Amino acid sequence: MLAGALPVVASRAETEPVVLEINGRVPASRRFTLADLSALGITHIRTSTLWTDGIRDFEGVLARKVIEAAGVPLTGKVVARGLNDYTATIPLSDFLDYDVILAWSMDGVPFTRRDKGPLWIVYPRGAHAELADERLEHRWVWQLAWLTLP
Predict the structure, then answer these.
(1) Ranges for the Oxidoreductase molybdopterin-binding domain (predicted)?
(2) Contact 78, 148 (CB under 8 A)
(3) Does residue 140 lie within any of the structural domains?
(4) Domain count of the chain?
(5) Is 4 part of a structural domain of the chain?
(6) Residues 56, 44: Cα–Cα separation, whole Å
(7) What is the CATH classification number for the domain harbouring 51?
(8) How far apart are CA 145 and CA 143, in angstroms?
(9) What whole-number distance in Å separates Cα of residue 137 and Cα of residue 122?
(10) Which of 11, 47, 16 is nearest to 120 (CA)?
(11) Number of C-beta neighbours around residue 148 at 10 A
(12) Is the peptide bond before 118 cis (omega within 30 degrees of 0)?
């Protein structure tokens, strides 16, 4: 197990592991299972990435819905951190301006920890030419497990 990896904590139903924790300026740290995230609404994005071939279908939840569910206004920024300790600071305005998702599958295949899972931040770059800017690619955090609101 990776040092500092997200602990496997049972959900309210005691059946599913936590895949995302939101902390920082939240009323209380929030932990989400895939079922919790799915309950917020499932969204698909068909887009290309620098790391995959062709147009792919990503399934996940809108990032803004997750932040709102944590009880935090969409102002300021968020620090996204993966299980591999990669971090990126992302303006929360991205989540308002674009349908950014926290994806858990690509082309119907769930992500694993070996393949960008449990979650991958995916931007709808196919729908917005300005998102194809390579200077924004660092925001596509994979193995996402934490969002910290400073």
Answers:
(1) 20-125
(2) yes
(3) yes
(4) 1
(5) no
(6) 10
(7) 3.90.420.10
(8) 6
(9) 10
(10) 47
(11) 18
(12) yes
Distance from CA of residue 43 to its chain's centroid? 12
Q: Which residue has the tokens 């960008």?
A: 116
Instruction: State residue 28 phi and psi, 5-degree precision.
Output: -155, 150
Q: How far is CA 90 from CA 11, 41, 74, in A?
A: 27, 22, 11
**Contact indicator for 41, 62 with CB cutoff of 8 Å:** yes
Structural domain including 94 reads 18-149
Read off the pLDDT of residues 28-76 as tens digits, 9 standing for 90 and up.
889 999 999 999 999 999 998 989 999 999 999 999 999 999 998 889 9
pTM of the model: 0.87
CA–CA separation, 120 vs 137, rounded Å?
A: 12
Residue 3: pLDDT over 70: no
